[in-house]
Amino acid sequence: MSAGNGRSAEAAHLRLDGHERECAVRYQGIQSAIDELKADIGWILKGVIAVLLAIVGGLAMQVYDGVKAPALAAEKQAAVAAGTDR
Predict the structure, then answer these.
(1) Residues whose CB falls within 8 Å of the CB of residue 86, separated by 6 or more in sequence, listed in order
(2) Measured distance CA(15)–CA(8) in Å, rounded
(3) Contact (CB, 8 A) for 47 and 55
(4) pLDDT per residue over 25-83, tens digit each?
(5) With contact defined as beta carbons under 8 Å apart, do 56 and 48 qualify?
(6) pTM of this prediction exceeds 0.70
(7) C-alpha distance across the termini of the chain, in Å
């Protein structure tokens, strides 16, 4: 009976070793996929930030032009009234 248990235990260890090797290979594949996804997400995030900055910049330019336009119009009217319009 002892000899049978020894073979059974040895077979179980061999199966476990094979299972551990297979899991290591799978884990390595999963880890490399995760690393690729992290890199892709980094590029996507940078792109989103760039687009948001462009939108905010465009809006800021429109606000600035909206604030500046009445002042320029008043200055032009004053020049026309004074006769110094070019």
Answers:
(1) 79
(2) 10
(3) no
(4) 999 999 999 999 999 999 999 999 999 999 999 999 988 887 777 777 788 888 888 77
(5) no
(6) no
(7) 114
Q: Would you state the structure tokens that stand for residue 80, as one six-digit string?
A: 């026309």
Compute the distance between CA of residue 14 and CA of residue 7 in angstroms, rounded to an integer. 10
pLDDT of residue 66: 78
Token representation of residue 65:
């032009």
Residue in the block written with tokens 């600035």: 64
The CA–CA distances, whole Å, from 34 to 28, 40, 46, 62, 67 equal: 10, 10, 18, 42, 49
Amino acid identity, residue 67?
A: V
Q: Which residue has the tokens 């792109």?
A: 47
The confidence band for 14, taking pLDDT boundaries of 50, 70 and 90, is very high
What whole-number distance in Å separates Cα of residue 66 and Cα of residue 17? 73
